[in-house]
Amino acid sequence: MSFAVFSSCSPHSFVRYSQQLVCLKRTLYATNTRWKQAVDTKDKPQPATPEQPESHIKASDFEVPDVKPNVLPPLNRPLGVRERPTTLIKSRTQKMKDLMDKDIRMAQRRHLIKEASKGYFHDMNMTRKHGGKTWIAPSVLIREDKALYLPNIVGKSLDNGTIKNTTTLCYGRITVLAMLGTQISEIHAKSFVGPTHARFSSNSLYQYIQINLQENILKSFLVSLFANKLRTTVAPEMQPNYLVSSQNMEYVRDPLGMTNSKVGYVYLIDENLKIRWGGSADARPEETQALESCTGVLLKRLEKTKPPKSQPVQQTTMEKVKKA
User: Fold this and answer.
1) 141 CB contacts (<8 Å, ≥6 apart)?
2) Which domains occur in the chain, in start order?
3) What is the pLDDT of residue 10?
4) Cα gap 59→73, rounded to integer Å
């Protein structure tokens, strides 16, 4: 019967059927062998391991995960740009040279790639971690030979709307400069500058400049629209040095350490337009004290080379009578 079935099949079908039988036979044999090995291993008695007393257990026997505390790093580089700032406007020829410069184009390309990897709410999400603070301000001044320059920033003064720039304002004086953009950044700046401004505001070689930076066109328009309301929140004596700027700071944010647009930044500028100290976000007590001491050091050095202008003393009535 079986021979008749096989005889009716084609040679190709017969070979295929034979291969299936061989595979089935191998599978059954392998399964039976593994089953016997498992039974023999289970029946074989295992050697008893002596239990160690608790006194032999050491702390090194346990694997402790290496948990690193989330500590903010100190500022490890000078802030600013390498080129000395200037008030001259670049010509078309200079702009074309910058576009053709390979190093400048590669730096811009790296910056764009870095910014493209960030989300829209990146700065807002970063404020959840240390309040947006990314580094600790130094306790001493940055060395003059290592310090970099503050780029030229142009804006309109709050008192009468005249156009001013930081290069002209900061040259020859010790300047504490605050970069503002939001209401929380104003609180950050006050936490840094409060004691320093109260101590040195009477010194003619000292000045405090605030820059309200609004790179967004719509926000810049709203700030200029409500300028009168802004004047009510700023003291009249500080309005000449309060600049409202819409300058594009895209390619100088990283050199200045301004990695978060939601927090405030404070810089100490010497008479040569170099950034000698910097702080970010909410100030710690030691950072506030460091800004005050560093400002005092720069003022003392500048007073030795350039004494402050002495104000004329008003003559008393008795002196006028004697001269008469």
Assistant:
1) 268, 276, 277, 294, 297, 298
2) 92-122 (no CATH), 127-305 (3.40.30.10)
3) 56
4) 31
Instruction: Look at residues 283, 309, 104 and name the one whose alpha carbon lies nearest to residue 205.
Output: 309
Q: Which amino acid is at 161?
A: G
- The vertex-161 CA angle with 281 and 172, nearest 5°, equals 65
How far apart CA 279 and CA 142 sit, in angstroms, is: 12
Q: Per the structure block, which two tokens stand in for 277? A: 């100290």
Q: How far apart are CA 159 and CA 234, in angstroms?
A: 10
Of 248, 81, 104, whose CA–CA distance to 167 is shortest? Answer: 81
pLDDT digits (tens, 9 = 90+) for 285-311: 999 999 999 999 999 999 988 765 544
With 0-12 / 13-18 / 19 or more C-beta atoms within 10 angstroms meaning exposed / middle / buried, residue 298 is buried
Do residues 249 and 215 touch, judged by C-beta distance below 8 A?
A: yes
Model pTM score: 0.68
pLDDT tens per residue across span 233-259: 888 899 999 999 988 888 888 889 888
The residues facing 144 across adjacent strands are none
Strands (E), 64-182: 154-157, 163-165, 174-180
Report the C-alpha gap between 294 and 81 in whole angstroms.
Answer: 21
Phi, psi of 35 (to 5 degrees): -65, -40
